[in-house]
Sequence to fold (654 residues):
Amino acid sequence: MGCCSSTQSSPREWKPLKEHSCTDIPWLLIFILFCIGMGFICGFSIATGAASRLVFGYDSYGNICGHTNKAVEGLSHSGLNHTGNKYVFFLDPCNLDLVHRKIKSIALCVAECPQTELKTLSDVQKFAETNKSYLCSYEINTSQYTSSSSKSFCPAVPVPASVPVPLFHRCAPRNISCYAKFAEALITFVSDNSVLHRLISGVMTSKEIIMGLCVLSLGLSMILMVVIRYISRVLVWILTILAILGSLGGTGVLWWLYASHRQSLDESLPPSELQIAKDNVYALMVYAIAATVFTVILLLIMLIMRKRVALTIALFHVAGKVFIHLPLLVFQPFWTFVALIFFWIYWIMVLLFLGTAGDPVKDERGFVEFRVSGPLQYMWWYHAVGLIWISEFILACQQMTVAGAVVTYYFTREKKNLPFTPILVSVQRLIRYHLGTVAKGAFIITLVKIPRLILMYIHSQLKGKENACARCMLKACICCLWCLEKCLNFLNQNAYTATAINSTNFCTSAKEAFVILVENVLRVAAINTVGDFMLFLGKVLIVCITGFVGVLLLHNQNDYTVWVLPLIIVCLFAFLVAHCFLSIYEMVVDVLFLCFAIDTKHNDGSPGREYYMDKALMEFVESSRKSMKNLSGGRGTRADGRELKPMASGASSA
Fold:
């Protein structure tokens, strides 16, 4: 079970897709036991009555609405028969506790919610006599509703019209304007409630346009994933030209400013002003020299990495072919999103169950709260860890599924012999062999994410209280953990690819993937800089097109203020969709690169060791071979010093 449990001491031969075996079984058992624990928490919260309290609601005295209740010793008004009172009614539904995010009001079980506004206590009394729905506290008789001594036990008038919330049996006001301070607390930039109402009305009147633009962004993302291989070369040239012009232009401006200030230096100035002028000239000279050094280094890096940039273009070209052969890859983010949504809904429901679980306890106001005591009170922490680990597990399953499908594509010489649905074959291999590996990789990310989230919580709680040194140290720790998490995510993804290729356990795959990445560190740098920037430009392109179309569709609304929120929603959704889809593209490129690196390391094109790679990658290898041949005086050599033999004709080009 340990990380160093691999018994392979000598270099192992890579046999892509030749053998399949179960990996990291102990970690699969641990994950299953953990999920059983999550199920126990859910069962406990339901068994202790939390589910009924959540669904049917309960009053301030612990009575479940719509049920016959048992009396609790020491608690007044407990044990009431509420079979005819099925709804929870709050005397003051707009009394919100923004800190604890709950309604600070007496809750009662009533027979009906007031469907119309009750302007006076007389109306409340008439409503109780007519509908047998008593809106004042239980100890107040209907005849006493209008007395001055009963005001604190009756709802604040006017009582807003309310409707029962489906499934949860709570009376909620029809007009949610009383929750405006909630919105003001969350949307601090809105200082005028009228502006907020206009923005919300703009969203409601433009909901069809918003939905249409969201569908447009979805279609644009799918189209871009197919056509990006045709524009990758143009994007790379744009990036290169902008970087060179920007560095040269910035350096030239700094030298021009230095020369201008030096020539205009007036020695007759007062000593203090003269010293300031000399310091400015000196600072400009330092900046110009630093910019010159940066520009020279940048140009040298571009010169050295120009071939690696060509590899990035080739990989993007092949990635486009992958999506043509494996169209179901496009929908992978959708299935992952659905799985995450279902799990998050389950997690939130159990969290709500836990919030109402436990034994009844009287609070300082004489009302009932339900609290869990003893060791079971730590179930919250277990449940929180489950949120992170299982969410990371679902994301890791997506990475393993994509890696398995792309590996199948790459290492199948004749593309016509591909399985009918490589995605489903990859899912089958994942479920049958590699769930333990995925669980282990997700757990490693969880170990890093939990302390980072704890430190972020501590930082938010101590904001304005800690000294500058402590604040700096907290931010530094959070930043370091974030960087470590990103590095581990990248290594995990490559470990999943190695597992998909050779069915090795997580640590063996991670070690071998790390060795290959180190051997190709310059190529990795080129792919993760140029490639990421290209994908970022693609995201910006989708957002710009969606926003532009949104402006054209919204131009008929004269109140330009209402444009803001619909456009923000549409652009955020467009960026989210583009990020989800293009992250799959980025994942495919990373998997293709590791396959390419393994292919070039263990094959040379000779009989019996033919390349698996696509024609575009073969052209890159051939170009590299010619360059190495010219540099070595006519003899082709590989990057590792071995002779680069001609490519076999058996390699397919898709």
In short: The CA atoms of residues 44 and 168 lie 20 Å apart.
